[in-house]
Recover the amino acids of this structure.
């Protein structure tokens, strides 16, 4: 028997670019959990990997990405159904296995997010990546972080990468968690290139 509680919300994020791969994590705790959070008890393991039908809100995801892009003066991203199909496939894989790792896609850049089912809006999910801008220093990748670690800004730099023109995202739910995968075309985070 496994008990899952929605009284504390956990969000994880990971980002990758073609230059080199890394997984970074950001944690957001219960401050963003809804006041009406309920305790969920799961006693049947088949329920742990049941997909739910929460629909991607393209407009919210694009608006959240493009807010950060507008702040630095780069063109807005457009939604790609082709990229979204690939992202959905990986989101389904993450939810079915309960793992949190990059797809290793040779085609697209990728940001991952995981958090308590239904506790976060799509804007909050993207904002978890955007919050890394507090460490961002404009420059040539990977020398783009005031902390000296590009991993502290890797999600944000993918969001604002000038040469990226398209985004597509997929969402899957299992085991009390939402898994959001956003993939980017063309990839960002290239070593030796300016972010914008």
């Amino acid at each position: 028997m496994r008990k899952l509680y929605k009284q504390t919300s956990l969000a994880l994020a990971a980002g990758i670019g073609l230059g080199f791969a890394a997984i970074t994590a950001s944690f957001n705790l219960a401050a963003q959990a809804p006041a009406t959070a309920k305790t969920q008890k799961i006693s049947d393991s088949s329920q742990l990997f049941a997909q739910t039908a929460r629909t991607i809100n393209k407009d919210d995801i694009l608006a959240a990405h493009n807010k950060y892009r507008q702040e630095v003066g780069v063109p807005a991203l457009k939604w790609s159904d082709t990229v979204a199909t690939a992202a959905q496939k990986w989101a389904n894989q993450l939810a079915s296995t309960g793992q949190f790792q990059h797809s290793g896609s040779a085609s697209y850049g990728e940001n991952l997010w995981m958090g308590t089912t239904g506790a976060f809006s799509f804007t909050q999910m993207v904002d978890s990546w955007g919050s890394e801008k507090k460490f961002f220093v404009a420059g040539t990748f990977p020398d783009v972080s005031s902390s000296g670690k590009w991993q502290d800004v890797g999600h944000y730099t993918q969001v604002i990468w000038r040469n990226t023109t398209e985004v597509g995202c997929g969402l899957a739910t299992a085991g009390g968690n939402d898994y959001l995968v956003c993939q980017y075309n063309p990839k960002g985070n290239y070593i030796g290139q300016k972010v914008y």
The first strand starts at residue 2 and ends at 5. The longest helix spans residues 81-97. Strands lie at 2-5, 11-16, 39-42, 78-79, 109-116, 166-174, 177-185.
